Each structure stands twice: as structure tokens, then as C-alpha cells.
Amino acid sequence: MQITIVGAGLSGAVAGRELAEAGHRVTIYDGRAHVAGNCHTERCPDTGVMVHLYGPHIFHTSDAEVWDYVNSFTTFRPYRHQVKTTVQGAVYAMPIGLHTINQFFGRTFRPEEARLYIEQHEADRSITNPQSFEEQALRFVGPRLYKAFFKGYTEKQWGLAPSSLPASILKRLPLRFDYNDNYFAHDFQGMPEQGYTLMVEAILDHPNIDVHLSREVSADQVARGDHLIWTGPLDGYFGARLGRLGYRTLDFERFTATGDWQGCAVMNYGDRDVPFTRITEHKHFAPWENHEGSVLYREVSRECGPDDIPYYPIRLVDEMAMLQGYQALAEAEEDVTFLGRLGTYAYMDMDVTIRAALDASRALVARFKAP
Questions:
Q1: Is 278 designated active site?
Q2: Cα separation of 251 and 359, whole Å?
Q3: Catalytic residue selected from 299, 315, 341, 351
Q4: Which stretches in the chain have pLDDT values below 70?
Q5: How many CB atoms lie within 10 A of CB 24?
Q6: Residue 288's pLDDT is what?
């Protein structure tokens, strides 16, 4: 079979590799001048720091097969992600844990004492079935912690009142009653020693794969072959005939420094009057390296325009109704597979993206073998 793939990010690369190893010919197009999509990394020529050009990507998973898969293409080094947040003139650890609770309230609670205090004195127990982000937060941690750590940050990140966002956004963030300040709790966590782009290049390094970069192609322009895998925007495939699906995008303000500028990889800023949501210091994403110089980015979230890079699908009521229409159109397409966060309009971590690409491409291999 001749397979055409639009997009050389994780979804396109992984699917292309599986199909190539099954003997199919794969042609991949990407509008950017590099592979790896938004997880593209490159070294700063001045400092030597490995920079996550489109924002930091932390690899974490409990899927052993996916972990073994990425380690077969590159060397991963141990990395535990820890996040700090500056609010109301103080620095705290995130997610909220026992240290942050004790620091914020000026107490010395033991775990069970903290649990009872939050439940009996802070959480709004009149909310029995939280529907919005705000209701979930008030039931979860109460008004004081909500105002300090969630309200302003969420308004900046989503450009919407927390009362209009679904509760599911907050449910992903744990509340801990111990001193564990690791951001993720997955079995396998790490960073590729030489960056994500080198890993994706290794995945694409197969004689049956032909990659064309700086080649922006539409659904009407692309030579489809026997099957097309589309990892670009779902609405873009159909020419936005039902309207544009909503995304948030990010603006990055890059600056450099000497030495250690902020002492951690990610510092969030929860106060509403601070325009950016966080500052990332990229040397800390590779703690096994030593660099005198440092590269940092301030991140500002805003509504995504037609020419911007989409990052976060909004997925509110209007978008979900539109998504159902596009999903119906996609199901009616013959010999087309839609993959990835853009192709399915879903927020997906890297491990989930790889798992979906493996499953979809293996299903295609089995289908092509069938009589």
C-alpha cells in the first residue's frame, strides 16, 4: 500500500513507522521545517541549553509498552517534574500538598489533620454535584485556596470565567495530604537525553518512509495514495465548513540569563494582575547537563487565530456540538484515518498520543492483510 500522512509529529511518525515496518510505502508531509511537531527541541547555539521551542514537554506514562517503545529509539534520563507557583507574595509547591497547606494556613498539620481541616473548615460541602471548574474547586479545596491557586491562573490560561469551564479540567489535578511534590505519579518518567526531535527522527529513519518538510498541504491538494492519515486540524481537513473549532494558543517571550535564574524548571504565576501564566527555565529539564547560560520563556495564553499554532482545545458546549458534526463527516470519509490531538480535537499527553497511533496503525496493518 501507498500511505500518505499529513503531519510529522508524534502521531504521524509512530503510525508511519508501524506501517513502514509492515512493508507499506509511507510519504509524510509537514508544513514546518522540522519534525516532531510541538515537542520539537533544539540546542540554543549561545548557551548549549536544550530548548523546548513550543513549550516544555514532560514524558510520563504508566503504559509499559509505550515506555519501551520510546526507549527503543533514544536514551531517556530520569527526570521528576516539580512545579512551583508564586501567589500573593509567596512561593508554594504545586499541586497542593501538605507542605503548601501548612505554609498557606500557617499550621503544622499531620496528614489526617490536614484532610479533616480542609473538609470541615474550607471545602464547600453544600456543593454535592460540581458541574463547573469553580464549583469543583470550591468543593475540593474551599474559597481561600481556590482564589489563591486556581482562579486567576485559570482566567489567564483559558480567557474564561472558571464558572463557565467544566469540572473535568480540575479533576485531573490531585490534592495530596503528604509531602510528595512530584507533579506526576506515573510509573515511568523521564526526558530524552538528546531531545525529542532526535527521537522522532529516529522513528522516521526507515527506508520505506519519505519525509517532505516545509510542505503545507490541504486535504484537496495532497496525493492520498491508498490511504490517508490526517494529523492536522480536524476542521481544517473539511475547510472549516461547519465553523472553526476553538483553541487557546501561546505567545512566548524569550529571554536569557547567566547562572540559575529561578531555581526550578517551571514557576507558575497565579495572581490575575501578572499577565503571564508561567516562566520556564529550560536548563532544568536536563538536570544531567551543566550550562552557565540559561534560556527562559514567559508564556501568555490567548485565543487562537487562524494563523496561530493551536495548543489547547477549548471543548466547551459550542465546540462539542460542532465537534459532533465534524466527527460525523470524518466517519463518512473513505480510506482516511484522523489521528492526534488536532485530528481528534482532544487534549492528549505524549504517551496517549503514541498509544493511539500504535493502535490505529496496527489496525490498519491488519485491515490491509485481510482478504
A1: yes
A2: 33
A3: 299
A4: 172
A5: 21
A6: 97
